[in-house]
Amino acid sequence: MALALQTFSTVKDANAALKAAGTRYLGGGTLVVRAANEGDVSVSGLIRSTEPALSAITVSGREVRIGASVTMAAMARHPDLSSLARAARAVGGPAIRNMATIGGNLFAPAPYGDFTVALLALGATVGTDDGEVPIETFLAKREDNHAIVTSVGFSLPLEGGFRFLKISRVKPKGVSVLSIAAVLEQAPDGTVSSAHIALGCLADRPMRAKAAEKALLGRKLTSDGIAPALAVASDGTSPITDAVASAWYRNEVLPVHLGRLLLA
Amino acid sequence: MAKIPVQFMLNGAEKAEFIDSGTTLLNALRDKIGDTSPKGGCHQGTCGACSVIIDGELRLSCLTLAETCNGAAITTTSGLSQGGVLHPLQRAFLDAFATQCGFCTPGMLMAAKVLLDHTPDPSRDEVVEALSGNICRCTGYEPIIQAVLTAARSNSQNAA
Ligand SMILES: Cc1cc2nc3c(=O)[nH]c(=O)nc-3n(C[C@H](O)[C@H](O)[C@H](O)COP(=O)(O)OP(=O)(O)OC[C@H]3O[C@@H](n4cnc5c(N)ncnc54)[C@H](O)[C@@H]3O)c2cc1C
Ligand code: FES
Ligand code: FES
């Protein structure tokens, strides 16, 4: 394998090195080293930065900032992020979670990217040295991104407001048939006042279920209340087909699992 | 390409080698340092046969670049037995027929060791979860799960 790694103490220097042709940033390596092992010769140089901020988690009140090099395992055990632990633990097995970073997850193609589904529902922002962009904007153009992602930021949802579900066929751990994250707020009468729903594996990257979100507003989380949202759950989806499930199957089971998540 | 130096502790002994940049830890351990206990099953992160413990955490050596381990403390299955005496996990694997062809065994042992290091008295579910990144094509998993639970019990009896 002809892969040379260059390590820089600052993101600034690493960004400069990434301008060279054939280079790619190295996060935990679970996708990029895997591709090299499989014979992908499009990458000849790996770049990484050891700047400490990349590995930091800061929580102040409900505001959270997570450095791009933070691993799924570090998030899963952080006491202030317990509401998100389920989504972090959904990624791979224990060894993968000790390596897989949040930065790398933002770039992971379906069926991967389970934690990014959570970030999309949380309305996160994605930071680089050039500033911050909403995660939706970032995901839409992620192929064009050549800058190192330094961190993601979001507000922690209110108690019990975050829901996450990953469906896989291999137990206890396997790749997603689909994953769903929802951040819901309810008025005192129980009707939904705000809904953010994100889907994984229903397109080549995580996407919002905007029609379902709209159909939930003002409705109660009962079988009748959520029926209109389930009816439009697959609006705008174009699921992947892989060895685990076909696009048709993913669309068919989406309303079933979304219903279970909303009624849970 | 010029070789680069790597230096780390392997099973308590200091190791230093010159490697090509980009060499995986699995290849460095097996081909350079001569520790063939981690196995290369898939080189894709899926089988877990290459699992090692780096600074107390389970990692896949096939997806880890050796040069990122400079200064680290690495444990492999070669480091489990002491003075010819098997580690309780190794003993339990043998007694429970938890190893058949044996290819997955070093990875299973590493995953089980990290579990017991942090959770000395695990539940069955915790054992299943801890081994969930490791594939075995022979045993059907049940003997492995039983072996880990037995080793945990024998550890706690020894400690009592
Ligand atoms: C066996 C196995 C099981 C898996 N299971 C799951 C699963 O269940 N769910 C899931 O979501 N994923 C899964 N994955 C995929 C992967 O492990 C995760 O998506 C992980 O979060 C990727 O992060 P990484 O740090 O390892 O990425 P890397 O491999 O280091 O990088 C992936 C891509 O992102 C780019 N990149 C990484 N960090 C940055 C950054 N900070 N700035 C700019 N670019 C960056 C890299 O250049 C590369 O192109 C699995 C992988 C394997 C091998
Ligand atoms: S060889 Fe590393 S996981 Fe299979
Ligand atoms: S004993 Fe053969 S793969 Fe597990």
From TrEMBL, chain A:
InterPro entries: CO_DH_flav_C (IPR005107), CO_DH_flav_C_dom_sf (IPR036683), Diverse_Substr_Oxidored (IPR051312), FAD-bd_PCMH (IPR016166), FAD-bd_PCMH-like_sf (IPR036318), FAD-bd_PCMH_sub2 (IPR016169), Mopterin_DH_FAD-bd (IPR002346). It comes from the Bacteria. Coiled coil: none annotated. Gene3D superfamilies: 3.30.465.10, CO dehydrogenase flavoprotein, C-terminal domain. One of its GO terms (molecular function) is FAD binding. Residues 1-159 form the FAD-binding PCMH-type domain. This is CO or xanthine dehydrogenase, FAD-binding subunit.
Automatic annotation (TrEMBL), chain B:
Gene3D superfamilies: 3.10.20.30, [2Fe-2S]-binding domain. It is an enzyme of class 1 (oxidoreductase). Its EC number is 1.3.5.1. Its cofactor is [2Fe-2S] cluster; [3Fe-4S] cluster. Residues 4-80 form the 2Fe-2S ferredoxin-type domain. InterPro entries: 2Fe-2S-bd (IPR002888), 2Fe-2S-bd_dom_sf (IPR036884), 2Fe-2S_ferredoxin-like_sf (IPR036010), 2Fe-2S_ferredoxin-type (IPR001041), 2Fe2S_fd_BS (IPR006058), Beta-grasp_dom_sf (IPR012675), Diverse_Oxidoreductases (IPR051452), Succ_DH/fum_Rdtase_N (IPR025192). Keywords: 2Fe-2S, Iron, Iron-sulfur, Metal-binding, Oxidoreductase. It comes from the Bacteria. It holds the Pfam family Fer2_2. PROSITE patterns: 2FE2S_FER_1 (PS00197), 2FE2S_FER_2 (PS51085). Signal peptide: none annotated. GO terms for molecular function: 2 iron, 2 sulfur cluster binding; electron transfer activity; metal ion binding; succinate dehydrogenase (quinone) activity. Belongs to the succinate dehydrogenase/fumarate reductase iron-sulfur protein family. This is succinate dehydrogenase. It comes from Mesorhizobium muleiense. The lineage of its organism: Bacteria, Pseudomonadati, Pseudomonadota, Alphaproteobacteria, Hyphomicrobiales.
